[in-house]
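stuck on this fold:
=====
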Amino acid sequence: MHRYPHWPFHVTLSTICALMLVPFIWVLKTSLTGENIFTYPPSVLPQDPHLFYYVDVWYTIPFFRYLVNSFLVSLIVVVANIVFNAMAGYALTREFIGKKAIIILFLSCMMIPFQVTIIPAYLITKELGLLNTHLGMALPVMSTIVCIFVFKASFDAVPRSLIDAARIDGLPDWKIIFKVMVPLSQSAIATNIILAFIWSWNNFLWPLVIIRDQHMQTLPLGLSRFLTVVEDTTGALYAFCIMVLIPGLVIFLLAQRQFIAGLTTGAAKG
């Protein structure tokens, strides 16, 4: 059987990856130089790089405070997603009356944008007394339908005999979930962590609606405030973007294998 060489495939993929990295490299270069992005011909390497714009971002606004707020909200969201989505995913692996209707309902809700439900979400948050709090900012994304189905697909791959053995040993359902199913679903956990963190980290509209105290603002809100006090926005804006991008990029790189495995779990099943 004739085997074709693999190098054209690798060259093509490397070229596509290099093209996709160009915007990120451009942002990083501009954040170090503050050069005019419309200069022609553009320079490939940064000319006279410095960290002035990063220092400017750090001291112009209370960046560290915004950073802590974003981390606290994202931490709440990530933990809540793992707990609630694991329980919901396990429930969807069981057989009960109305299961198909609930799955259809979940899939239908995925097509409803958050802007449609933002008013009832605000009223509920207000009644719970969570306005202007970290928990209030995390509340709407503490469970997501996509991540529920990621856990469901992972739990479906666990042998039923293992669950039956746990029941024979007398384990209740909640212990089966967190002592048997979750430890065997590392890819689903990684997927939940990455998606929940990114969605929470980049959330702008919901914190804008419920936050009144400037000390409770997150980084996306801090960016809008930063742009109102900085005159030369090119280098400073890109420096801000790099500083916000780094945490999510690090988390993705650390868990990218599990993330891809979690998204493809069950793809080969009929």
User: Anything to note?
Assistant: The first helix runs from residue 7 to 33. The mean pLDDT is 85.
